[in-house]
Amino acid sequence: MLDCSEGAQKQLRRMRLPMMKIDHIFISHLHGDHYLGLAGLLFSYHLIGRTKPLNIFAPEGLQEIIELQFRVSDHKPAYPLHFHIVREGGQQVYEDKNITVETIAMEHRIPTYGYLFREKQALRNIRKDAIEHYNIPIEHISKIKSGKDLVRDNGEIIPNHKLTKDPPAPRSYAFCSDTGYTEQYLGQIKNVDLLYHEATFLHDKVDIARQKTHCTGIDAATIAKKACAGQLLIGHYSARYDDMKLFEKEAKRVFPDTILAQEGLCVEIGNKENRE
Q: What's the whole-model pTM score?
């Protein structure tokens, strides 16, 4: 989960998303609209009997806030709760067999971080017809998937490219939360497949955006264009606006492959190379 605003539980249930499958929560910063739903979610996990660990990644201060709420309510979570303090950009904070997650330093009024998710390269796909044709033993399959040739009992070498197919290219997603316009992280998000970037104001309010360290639709689109992103997803619109299509129209002038973030929207992360 990326950020946890008020009403997070309500939305999870409305969209029929399995709450118990959330094992890692990444908080960008400690402005209320990005974390005020977290305490309620953690209490709910306690009440419905969660036992598996939950990891929370956030700037310093969030652990104190959450532990205070547990303490004054005389509760102790019935599950292991692990806090990981984020202090800088470019820091790898998570890794498993499928992905890595690293922080992106934003430019905001308080310490704020985005997160860059990268898939790891999958193993090669072994061809079913090759298994049958060469009568490949089961114990050789894992080595072939990792790129090894097949050496048959008679010494014949079957090159890997005859046995396997290329796996899908790994995908990437950058979540750039609240930030003023800055190009300091362009190199880090270069060629990302999907870029989420805040667009709080339309560009006629660019002076206000600069004062409040936020971005406009054009700012977000400019970052996407300079980063050579595959697709741009914009959000975090100011409450002063009623017509969000104005953001889409503005951003598309600079970066045509822009979509609006909306509640309940599912976006499939396509590989940038395949899109091109």
A: 0.89
